[in-house]
Amino acid sequence: MAKHATTAVGWGHHHLQKRWLLALLLMLSVSTVIVFCIRAAFDSCDRNVPSAVSAANVIGLAPNAVQVAEKRALQIAAGKPSPLSFMKSKIVLLVSHELSLSGGPLLLMDLAFLLRSVGAEVYWITIMKPSETDEVIYSLEHKMLDRGVQVVSSAKGTEAINTALRADLVVLNTAVAGKWLDAVLKEDVHHVLPKVLWWIHEMRGHYFKLDYVKHLPFVAGAMIDSHVTAEHWKNRTQERLKIKMPETYVVHLGNSKELMQVAEDSVAKRVLREHVRESLGVRNEDLLFALINSVSRGKGQDLFLRSFSEALQLIKEKKMQVPPLHAVIVGSDMSAQTKFETELRDYVMQKKIQDRVHFVNKTLTVAPYLAAIDVLVQNSQARGECFGRITIEAMAFQLPVLGTAAGGTREIVVNGTTGLLHPVGKEGVTPLAKNIVKLATHVERRLTIGKRGYERVKERFLEQHMAERIAGVLKEVLRKSKNKSSTHLD
Ligand SMILES: *[C@@H]1O[C@H](CO)[C@@H](O)[C@H](O)[C@H]1NC(C)=O
Ligand SMILES: *[C@@H]1O[C@H](CO)[C@@H](O)[C@H](O)[C@H]1NC(C)=O
Ligand SMILES: *[C@@H]1O[C@H](CO)[C@@H](O)[C@H](O)[C@H]1NC(C)=O
Ligand SMILES: *[C@@H]1O[C@H](CO)[C@@H](O)[C@H](O)[C@H]1NC(C)=O
């Protein structure tokens, strides 16, 4: 491994895929050596989800692997004008609530790099930073510095204020970042609001506080990950807070190039599949249904296990001829959700399905699991996912999705075509069980649904699509803020 890493820089393009493979395998076998992350997908609804879990394409390895990848990304970019090229030389300030390996900040970093790649002048402010040095923050900041993002050292103070005043565009990330406006900008806040684009990725109740969002009506625009989340924000702000949303843009997310590269490499997929299956102790012909999300009640692992157990029962009763079914729960963290995790494990013992249910600790790399499984289960409860990036990641791997008919999942999965939807709550247990059996017994259908999912991703859920959508929003916001400032001067 070490030898490969040191010779990697000289590798040509067609060797690149092997690099990813090595990187992924290394991640799997040496899970503690997580040095660099390229980017992470996420589960936009829940900022607390360790991206580790929902992250798809965090690929760790030596810096030279990152350089090779970036060089290639630049070359690809050089071939085709980016939809964001009008942002060249524009000054953009990105304000992040925190800097961590969780979904929100990593998505904002993706935006930072997209903007850097077209020559924008990009500044970054992290509002909440621990006082002691933090390894993750250190490495993420250095990753940004390496790519020409100017990291403002303090969220408060004159440098932050001046950058905000000077910027053409300020992107606030997540609702809680709203607190920064008054606390730091003070009397200058009204000069900055007309050029603020507020990117919102959450819909839980406690975000609907005037404390956070009272300036929302006065910003240039809000950008939200799904229609259903945007609708929810409109309702809640109006009904609870009596404030009006600004112009709101729905921007569905897209899969990174790195993830697509692994997903489209059949050799890489095969190796990863064998490796993961071996580590779980399942055979190649066994059928794996996986739920990949941090383990918590909101993500519905408990209900999924009940459906899974029901499905096994159905198969037994009807004496169906199917390969052994397995359930994989990726995202386990015994130290965080001890009670719920214990409940899950007790249930498995009680039903005597220990040999069919596998718990995998939360991990920075989900690509190997996507390569190894046959069906993704997206069982988020209540309002569902805001978007649910793992869903489009799974579809990139040609996996059918069994999802709850809620939240962003409904905007991603076409029921009957790229997946099968079931209701949230207890009402969904039996329908999900039947859908599990359906996919287990109809091999052709399962594969077709997976292929259609992949086609849908290629049509609308790639990084390039996301960049196009964001470009449309930024153009509009720049136009508006320019108009505002020119009328101010008049
Ligand atoms: C928003 O409110 C309208 C009217 O009260 C309702 O029909 C709609 O379902 C609500 N949408 C959401 C997402 O809550
Ligand atoms: C999973 O995490 C637990 C602690 O939460 C740890 O004890 C265990 O060794 C981990 N398992 C693996 C395979 O890393
Ligand atoms: C999904 O499709 C199935 C069969 O076509 C149907 O029975 C089910 O009600 C649909 N679910 C949703 C949420 O549309
Ligand atoms: C600019 O602002 C004025 C009034 O503030 C408005 O009438 C006009 O339509 C705006 N123009 C654009 C291009 O948004």
Automatic annotation (TrEMBL):
Question: From the Swiss-Prot or TrEMBL record, what is one GO molecular function term?
Answer: glycosyltransferase activity
Report TM segments.
20-42
In what residue span(s) does the Glycosyl transferase family domain sit?
A: 274-455
* Organism expressing this protein natively: Durio zibethinus (Durian)
Source organism, top-level taxon: Eukaryota
Question: What name does the UniProt record give this protein?
Answer: Uncharacterized protein LOC111317205
Which terms are listed as keywords in the entry?
Glycosyltransferase, Membrane, Transferase, Transmembrane, Transmembrane helix
Which gene name belongs to this protein? LOC111317205
InterPro entries referenced in this protein's UniProt entry, alphabetically: Glyco_trans_1 (IPR001296), Glyco_trans_4_5 (IPR041693)
Q: Does the keyword Membrane apply?
A: yes
Q: Which SUPFAM superfamilies match?
A: UDP-Glycosyltransferase/glycogen phosphorylase
Q: Which CDD domains match?
A: GT4_PimA-like (cd03801)
